[in-house]
Amino acid sequence: MKFLDEFREKELAQRISAEIHRTVRQPWKIMEVCGGQTHSILQYGLQDLLPEEIELLHGPGCPVCVTPVELIDKAVAIAAFDDVIFCSFGDMLRVPGSKKDLLEARAEGADVRIVYSPLDAVAIARKNPERRVVFFAVGFETTAPANAMAAYQAKRLGLRNFFLLCSHVLVPPVMASILQSADNRVQAFLGPGHVCSIMGAREYESLSEQYKVPIVITGFEPSDILEGIWRCIAQLEKGEAKLEIQYSRAVRSEGNLSAMAVLDAVFDRSERLWRGLGTIAESGYALNEQYKQFDAEKQFAVHGLQADESPLCISGEILRGLKKPIHCSAFARECTPEHPLGATMVSPEGTCANYYKFRPRPGEDDAS
Ligand code: SF4
């Protein structure tokens, strides 16, 4: 397939790998921010093409993984209202809450529906004026424009029974939070290609300058990722720290101005709680004054929830690049994709799920 196959060619990957081996002089730790990049790295075994000096750290860029358990509990509680139709993308249904996930809520009788676009939820609201329809708006800057558009359409149509349960998170603030932490291990970032196709590169340029860290905005195919790694290493070895755009076939420095205009019209930046990472200032989107009527958290008084996560789960440390799934005592034992204890075992972009699928399990031959 054009625009895909040429980025998956074995010979090209081997050539870039050889260039990386020629460039490396000392150990470096590079974090890929995006869950899609983590998936490609594990699926194609890219770590095995790198010199042993290079360690890849898997970052917090999987939206399902960073949605806090408190919000899953809130979603389950809202879905239990008799008049509610709760709409969500399918991957959120199996994310564990404190006591149950949305799939179990559905099994107990809640009207939980899988949709493929937030506009599907708007259509359901139009067809069911006597019911309250809630869409679980989860994701990074990539999915936020479609959710903003759903709120915009609901307002234009005069809908009073449509609501968003928002858990939108933003990449640059969490990168800054990782870099500021006392135990930070990250020396360079592969930046999030899809997010930057919406938001552009300017915020990442500022981050690179402020924290003196190389950032290479990178795509998702094997040769994209290897080239991104090679560019990071070339900078690190020369003592440079600047922004580069490897994924230039999709990313423009100024971003997608139309998408950003919709975001600005509907959302304000807000403080946001991240699963395993705590509360980070200005790291999320919340509906602004003009759109607050669509805020599910204001519409539904859900109080007294006590968030409770598995004490075995170390996904917070994994999302900050401090540990790998094989360091978790529950990995592939108590915690599997069929019975996940943490969100990083649920999503196809989750680090634990990808290690489970693509790496040898405990007891098999693996040292990474
Ligand atoms: S293997 Fe399961 S319990 Fe362990 S960190 Fe990953 S999601 Fe959490």
Condensed summary:
With 368 residues, the protein is α/β, with parallel strands linked by helices.
How much of the residues is beta strand, in percent?
15-25%
Distance between the termini: 33 Å
Tell me which ligands are bound: iron/sulfur cluster
Question: What ranges have pLDDT less than 50 throughout 5 or more consecutive residues?
Answer: none
C-alpha Rg (nearest Å): 21 Å
CATH architecture group name of the largest domain: 3-Layer(aba) Sandwich
The oligomerization state is single chain
What is the number of strand segments?
11
Number of helices: 15
Class inferred from helices and paired strands: alpha/beta
Indicate the overall shape. globular
- At CATH level 3, the topology of the largest domain is Rossmann fold
The biggest beta sheet reads: 6 strands, mixed
Kindly report the average pLDDT value: 93
Please, what is the CATH homologous superfamily of the largest domain?
HypD, alpha/beta domain 2
Q: How helical, in percent, are the residues?
A: 25-40%
Q: Class of the largest domain, according to the CATH hierarchy?
A: Alpha Beta
Q: Which sequence of strands runs across the widest sheet?
A: 4-3-5-6-11-10
Can you put this structure into words, describing what you see?
With 368 residues, the protein is an alpha/beta fold. 38% of the residues lie in helices and 19% in strands. It has 15 helices and eleven strands. The strands form two sheets. A six-stranded mixed β-sheet has the order 4-3-5-6-11-10, with helices on both faces. It has a five-stranded parallel β-sheet with strand order 2-1-7-8-9. Strand 5, helix 7 and strand 6 form a beta-alpha-beta unit. It is globular, with a radius of gyration of 21 Å. The two termini are 33 Å apart. The mean pLDDT is 93. Bound molecules: iron/sulfur cluster. The site of iron/sulfur cluster has 17 residues, from helix 14.
